Amino acid sequence: MRVKSIIIDGFKSYAHRKELENLSPHFNAITGLNGSGKSNIFDAICFVMGITNLKKVRADDPRELIFRAGTTGVHAARVTLEFINDDPATAPPGYSCEEYPIITVGRQIKIGGKQQFFFNNTISMQSKVKRFFESISLNVDNPHFMVLQGTVHKLIGMRSQDILSLIEEAVGTKAFDHRRRTAESLIRNKEKKIEEIDNNITTQIGPMLEAMRADQEEYKRFLHITEGLEEKKKFRIAFEYYEKSQSIEKSAEVMEQKGAEVANAKENIKNIPEQEEALTRRIMSLQESLGAPSEAAIALHEEESELKKTLVRHQSSVENVEKQLKQLENTLKSLQKEKEKQHKSQETFQVQREKHEVLLEDIKKEKEKVKHLKDALHLMEAGVRAGDSGVSLEQERSQIDVELIKCNATARRCREEIKDLTNQLKQVQQTQLRQKDQIQSAEKDLDDANRLLQRESVQYLPLAEVEKRATELFDSLGTNKKEYQRLFDTAQRDGSYRQFDLDYDRSRASKDLERRTKGRVGELITPKEDKYALALLVGAQNMLMRVVVESDRDADEIIKCGLRQRTAFLALDKLQLAHSIDARKKEEAQQVCKRLGGSVHVAKDLAQFSDPSLGHLAEFVFGNFFVCSSLAIAQELAYNPKIKVKAVTLEGEVAEPNGLMTGGSNSQLRNTFNELKVYREKKLPLMKLSSTIKDMEREYKQLRGQLQGKQPVIDAYKSAEERVELLKQKLQIMRSQTEEAASDIETRLTTSQNALSEAEAAVEKYKAHKGGHRERGVCGRGTGADGLGGEVGKGGSETRKTDSGRGKRVVRVRAAGGRH
């Protein structure tokens, strides 16, 4: 490195800008007449190198460095040294010849003492300038940095320690000793600070963290309980709604039942007068029948006695038979063990038993026949003629009179109903004639309305499908929004989802902010293979968790909408690439890899992304470091002067050009790629549903725009359609009122006429029956009684024969039972 030029402006005797350029590589002296400014040039060089002792530049006050102390209008002094860095052997560390071919150092001082240092034409710190010169063995703070005229003898007479110090300064080791002492002092101070921090963490922050963790657990339990409470509230509301619905349905059923009961009660109230009249006539007929002879009562009393006796006889017979059956059953139980041997005998016994039951039935029938004949005989002996129904003729006549009264009353009531219904039917027919004109007018209005509807439908039909589609979209939008809210609430209850999701008030944000928010870097850019995941994770560091947005305005909007977590953003329109890896370094890296045996790739080449617009982002995050197969290759890539690029191994070890190395266990590292992948999978249904909702809203908005432009046509069609329906209902009501009334009256009239016919037929029947009784009269009682007596005797003999036969069979049955 050598001096190329010296630029002096306003320094000491140089009032105006003076540039000493194109200096020889062997420049080492300044010659000239006295007062020509030789010393001032030397002072300028010391000034720009950062000298702080002004006496060495022959000044007592900073203002003396400015031309005539700023009294002539020059208010600042600036000196700039420009170096040519073309020799790699003498190049300063960290400033390669390829990257820094020209190095400029400048210093400026103004009236008032304010000064600035410049490095490569940018404002810099004085310490940086001093370190730069110290790296090339130039320390302006060394008391022997500059040897003035007349001080050479002092240098020769220096002590050995001072001479050693001067040699160390010239060699450059003194600067490193100074840095070491400074670093040790700094380390001691930092260690004290670290001890204080550890003490604070142990005594103050630790208990606070424990308390906050307990509060966090309590808050989580509170959230869980709150969610459960909300679900219980919803369930309770739904259950109450269900109960109320059931209660309303039951109340409606009860109301219908009560309405039916009220209708029945009204019908009963209408029938009460008729029932009262019928009962009155019945009472009158019964009062007349009370005066009839009491002989029939005596006969009935005697018949009752005989029936009681017969009942007792039959009951005793039944009891005997039951006893016999029980004996037989006991016998059968005792013979179960010999069932196989006596099977034939058992069959015989069963046959006898069936015959016995048949005999019992025959006896019962004969006894009933005898009883009937005896009853008839008693009636004949009492002098009463038996009728066809088995009762006396007088009773049968009385019954016929009662039935005649009922039939006559029914016929009279039917005639009155027929008369009333006929009048009502005439009135309804007259009403139909009066309403005929109204119906014709309504039909004409309906025809006009239908023609208008047809005219309007010509323009409306193309819009009908659009309106139907808009209605379907509106219903689907409501369903999808409810489903989206359900999925969003479910995701929010997941802790891993909330960790990566941006928590801000989306209601305050613009509609397309979600679309402009791309997601986190590790979510958008993933490793091509799982074996590269660790290297990319370590190399990118915290870049993976940064949120990518389209512009810085989007990030500002998210923050202003109440962002609840600390988040770093990357705006795609503001990304500025750092020093990327050029082709020469890539070639050098490949050569190193071949020499050491292994593989090396630029990290960007091992990552993948689906959106082409993310290429700039991938270059920004993964374009500035290598991924290699071993630590030896990583060290060579980081420390080789021709490469000097950060390198990461597949095991996560890092080597950086500044000498920093990182490695060790990876168990504490979070697998951010996998966590973001799981988060992406959970978020994907929400994103798809959100996209579907936006598409549907867009389509619905377009359809609504089309319909709003044609709203007059739609309104006209709807109005015409409503008028047609209204006129149809009106016409139907007009027709149904008269037709239903006429139909109801005709039905009731037919029913009354049929009832009248039946009543008249019944009257004729009873009159004919009553006339037949008069013709028969009372027959000879002796002849009838003799005949009945003979029949009774004949029946008794048959009964005795049957009894004797039954006795013989019972004996045989018992004998068979004894054998068994």
TrEMBL record:
Query: What are the recorded GO MF terms, alphabetically?
Result: ATP binding; ATP hydrolysis activity
TM region positions: none
Chief location of this protein?
A: nucleus
What region holds the SMC hinge domain?
515-638
Q: Mind telling me what this protein is named?
A: RecF/RecN/SMC N terminal domain/AAA domain/SMC proteins Flexible Hinge Domain, putative
Q: Name one GO cellular component term.
A: nucleus
Coiled coil stretches, renumbered:
304-376, 404-459
Top-rank taxon, per record: Eukaryota
Q: Which family does it belong to?
A: Belongs to the SMC family. SMC2 subfamily.
Q: Which SUPFAM superfamilies match?
A: P-loop containing nucleoside triphosphate hydrolases (SSF52540), Smc hinge domain (SSF75553)
List UniProt keywords, sorted A-Z: ATP-binding, Cell cycle, Coiled coil, DNA condensation, Nucleotide-binding
Q: Where is the composition biased (Gly residues)?
A: 779-796
Q: Which PANTHER family match?
A: STRUCTURAL MAINTENANCE OF CHROMOSOMES PROTEIN 3
- The annotated region (Disordered) lies at 767-820
* GO term, biological process aspect, one: chromosome condensation
**Could you tell me which Pfam families the record lists for this protein?**
SMC_hinge, SMC_N
**Bias kind Basic and acidic residues: ranges:** 797-806
Its localization reads: Nucleus
Q: Where is the composition biased (Basic residues)?
A: 807-820
